[in-house]
Design a protein that fits this description.
By secondary structure, chain A is an alpha+beta fold. The first copy, chain A, has two domains: 3-85, Winged helix-like DNA-binding domain superfamily/Winged helix DNA-binding domain (Arc Repressor Mutant, subunit A, Orthogonal Bundle); 90-134, no CATH class. The first copy, chain A, has helices spanning 2-13, 20-30, 40-50, 57-70; strands spanning 37-39, 74-76, 84-86, 93-97, 102-106, 123-136. Bound molecules: manganese (II) ion (2 copies) and zinc ion (2 copies). The site of one zinc ion has 7 residues of chain B, from strand 5. Chain A binds a DNA duplex through helix 2 and helix 4.
Chain lengths: 138, 138
Amino acid sequence: MSNNTIFIEKLRSSGLRPTRQRIEICKLLFDRKDTFHFTINDLNNSLTRITNEKISLATIYNTIHAFKEKGYLKEISINSNKTYFDTNISNHHHFFDEDNKELIDLNDKDVGKVKIKKILPGKKIKSVEILVKVANNN
Amino acid sequence: MSNNTIFIEKLRSSGLRPTRQRIEICKLLFDRKDTFHFTINDLNNSLTRITNEKISLATIYNTIHAFKEKGYLKEISINSNKTYFDTNISNHHHFFDEDNKELIDLNDKDVGKVKIKKILPGKKIKSVEILVKVANNN
DNA sequence: TTCCTAATTTATAATGATTCTAAAGTAGAG
DNA sequence: CTCTACTTTAGAATCATTATAAATTAGGAA
Ligand SMILES: [Mn+2]
Ligand SMILES: [Mn+2]
Ligand SMILES: [Zn+2]
Ligand SMILES: [Zn+2]
């Protein structure tokens, strides 16, 4: 209950009305100790499992896009038919486990400092992402 | 003509029959000085422009997948609804220009050596890709 | 509280890249 | 030349995502 107040405030302060659906999604995404990675499908499944009243898939897409827009989520660059999102919005990199299609965080200490020495005139760097693809040995 | 011989040999030696379609695609992809990046749609457009007899879209997909399988092409990890391919199969990284949705090579000298210090037991690193997203200043 | 309006949700259709299917065509060994 | 496995092909199917447009709701004003 009182926990929701934080999310309601967060939503309000972003110009987003605190609807039942958005609060439900906030709780699922942000009311936990550790950050995590998910696809829309993952999220939909979790929501179905956890909440009683159904949230439309369109609303899930809308909400996630709004949250990404506001900077509460990051979209991870990966070659997949599905889009991956991250509740860890800090600058960091990833392993992608090709066996179970899972992202795993690589924090800055796990990666030597990356220095981009080439510049493109008139262009500004928006992000630098490292993706390390891994798979089972054999 | 005699140029095709190289591609015919290349295809044969990979266990791929040198069909008219595959040779046409080889010429378009590999008969040039510089490597480049493309999507299936780009390739289809180029083929339509250059060749007289039409190549089915299904064949283009089949061929590109076969070429990737044989290691003649790389697929670039990028978050897009389209898949990007690269005729530069060496280890290198990319800028992605979000304004015109274009990939630009970053060779090893342009990027300080990347060292991954974390290991995942039982997992083998398949690739390390850096994607630097850029966009117009203003 | 009640009204009003814009924001939001929702079911459903549309989109578009990619993959599948199964029939027709072809390469090339013998 | 014949035969068969490989290849091409048109078209259908798939599936994540986006668009649509009608119903619902949040929240400020009266
Ligand atoms: Mn992709
Ligand atoms: Mn993607
Ligand atoms: Zn992450
Ligand atoms: Zn490249």
